[in-house]
Amino acid sequence: MNEQELLKLFMRQSAQQVYVVTSKSKNGYSAITVSSLTSISMDPPLMMISIDKKSHNHEILVNSEHFIITLLYYGDEEISKIMADRIDAKEKLEKVGYTESGYGPILNIERPYLILSNYKVYDAGDHSIILGKIIDGKISDIKCPLVYYNRNYTTLKNC
Asked: Is the pLDDT of residue 157 over 90?
């Protein structure tokens, strides 16, 4: 087994919360599903995401001044699938519904989200790591999260 296959099999056994990341730059819109998101620092408040350099969303996201992370709840599988689709980002946003803000597109769903300024971008093999500094957001009632585990959607048992 090669190292890439080992990594894939290992990550299938790791439950991941599912998020949508949206952004807008002079070159258009970006809208993707991510499950790799990490808080990095409290001072300043930084979050980290990564994106495949081959993704058609890559250049837009790494060159955006801001991006928005929306947390998905159990039951939002269809939103996750739409945002993971390889269709035009604007088309994805129109399918789900969004509001244009001064920071980029915010999904028209009642979910927690964070607005981040693009703080730093790092090269990391076939991906770019993007650090974002939290500048605003909205928190809603806590509900069961949408979790991706072993290539399937699920949620927490005690939720």
From this structure: no
